[in-house]
Amino acid sequence: xxxxxxxxxxxxxxxxxxxxxxxxxxxxVLISLWFLDKSLPEQPIFTIIAMESVFQLASIYAxxxxxxxxxxxxxxxxxxxxxxxxxxLSFLGGASNAFVSLLLLPCIIAAVTVPPxxxxxxxxxxxxxxxxxxxxxxxxxxxxxxxxxxxxxLVNFVFMVIVIVTVVTYLASRIQQRxxxxxxxxEKQLQQEQVLxxxxxxxxxxxxxxxxxxxxxxxxxxxxxDFPQHPAVKDMQAPxxxxxxxxxxxxxxxxxxxxxxxxxxxxxxxxxxxxxxxLTLQFPEQTISCQLPSESFSINGDPMLIPALFNLxxxxxKANEKCSISNLxxxxxxxxxxxxxxxQTWSLSIRDFGPxxxxxxxxxIGKSVVDSSSGLGMALLLSHATIERLGGTxxxxxxxxxxxxxxxxxxxx
Length: 413
Fold this sequence. Notes:
Blueprint: H1 10-36, H2 42-62, H3 71-90, H4 104-113, H5 116-135, H6 137-142, H7 147-226, H8 231-256, E1 265-267, H9 268-282, E2 287-291, E3 298-300, H10 305-322, E4 327-336, E5 344-351, H11 359-362, H12 378-389, E6 393-398, E7 404-411
Helix pairs in contact: 1-2, 2-3, 3-4, 3-5, 4-5, 4-7, 5-7, 7-8, 7-12, 9-10, 10-12
C-alpha cells in the first residue's frame, strides 16, 4: 500500500506516536497481568486496545494519499486519542493511575499543529476526560480517603493544561513568525540575486552593442555624405541617435552607481520634466493629463529612479496603443506617513486605458519573471527592485472601469 504522508509531517508524527503508544499499552498490560496485578479486567482492556488498533489502521488507510490534513481532521484524531485513553484508564484505576498525565499529550500536539480555537477545544476535551475519571471511577475503587490526593491531582492537571498549552502555543507562534520572516528574507535575497543577474546580463549586452552601433554610425556618416537626400538615410538618423543617447545614459548611470559616487536629492519638477521629455520623444502620440501638487518638494536623486518610473510609463503607453487610446492620467500627491519614521511620502499614480492586467498574473508581475505576450515582465521586476531599494512601494491593480493603475510611493527627502 502506497503511503504519501511523511513521518516529518504533523499527520505522520501523530500516527507514529499512536502506533508506539499502542505497542507500549499492550506491553505494559501484559507485564501487569503476568507479574503485578492478575485481577485486571482482561477482556475490556484488550477490546479497547484492539479497537484503537483498528482505528489506527483505518486512519492510515484513509490518509494514505494525503501529505497533510485539515485542522478539523487533526482535531478528530486527537479527540479519538483522548477518548481511547480515557476509556482504557477507567478500567485501570482512573485518575489514580500514574499514566493519567498522558492526557496532556493531545493538548501539546494540538498547540503545535492546529489553530488556537482548536487548541482550546482539545484542552477542554482533556479536562472533561480527567473530570470523568475523577468523579466516577476513583471514588468507587479507592474510597474517600483518596479524595484530597485526587483533588490535588485534578488541580495540578488543570494548572498544567493551562500553563503548557499557553507556553507551547506562544512558542509555536514565535517559531512560525520566525519561519515566515526567514522565508521572506530568502525570497527577497533570491529576488535580489535575480535582479543582479538581469543587471549583469543587461550590462554585458550593452557593452557588446556599443561597438556595432559605433560602426553603424560611421557607415551612416558615409552614406549621409554620398546620398544626403535618400529617404532610407534620413530614416536611419533618429534610431541611431536614440541608440547613442541610450548608451550614453547607461554609461552615466553606471558612473553614478559606483560606490564613491554621492547621490543627492533633487527637485521633483526636474525629475518630472525629464520623464515628460522621455515619454514625448518615445511616444509622441500620447497625451498626459496630470495633476501635480502646488508646493515643491525634494526626492531621492538616485540615477535608477527615472528609468524605473519610465518603465511604468512605457507599459502604460503600450497598453493604450493596444486599444487605440492616447490619453494617460497621472496624479502626484503628498501625504503624511504615520506608520514609519518617514514624515512625508509622495505618490505617483499612472492610469492607462488598455486591456488591464490578467488576474492570474496580477499578484506575480513586478515581483518575479512572468511570461506574457509582450515579454517576461523584466522591466517591472527591475522597477520594483529599484523602488524597494529606495524605501518605497509599487502597487499594481486594475481600474474598476478600464485599464490598469500603477501607484508608486516614495519618501520625501
